[in-house]
Design goal:
This protein is mostly helical and 84 residues long. It has helices at 2-14, 24-48, 57-79. 73% of the residues lie in helices and 0% in strands.
């Protein structure tokens, strides 16, 4: 069990190395999108029970900007010419 946990922690550290296969912008964009989906689900559930879910607009907009920025930059990098 300890070896498995240690292996997972080491794999998490590998994400932040310069020579990895993981695009960090995609990871952050996905996490931001997941928070937005959780917010939408919580809003639907509380709305079903007749309660109002109060979240400041600038907080939600921040997650929107982070998501769009991460996926936009990652998309541009994918199609940008390398080596020129």
């Amino acid at each position: 069990m300890f070896k498995y946990i240690n292996k997972q922690i080491m794999a998490f550290k590998d994400i932040f190395k310069d020579d990895n296969d993981v695009n960090e912008k995609n990871v952050i964009g996905f996490l931001s999108f997941a928070v937005m989906v959780l917010f939408a689900a919580a809003d639907l559930i509380t709305g079903y029970f007749g309660k109002d879910l109060v979240v400041q607009e600038f907080i939600y907009n921040s997650f929107v900007f982070v998501t769009l920025g991460c996926f936009g930059i990652a998309g541009l990098e994918k199609f940008a010419k390398k080596g020129e």
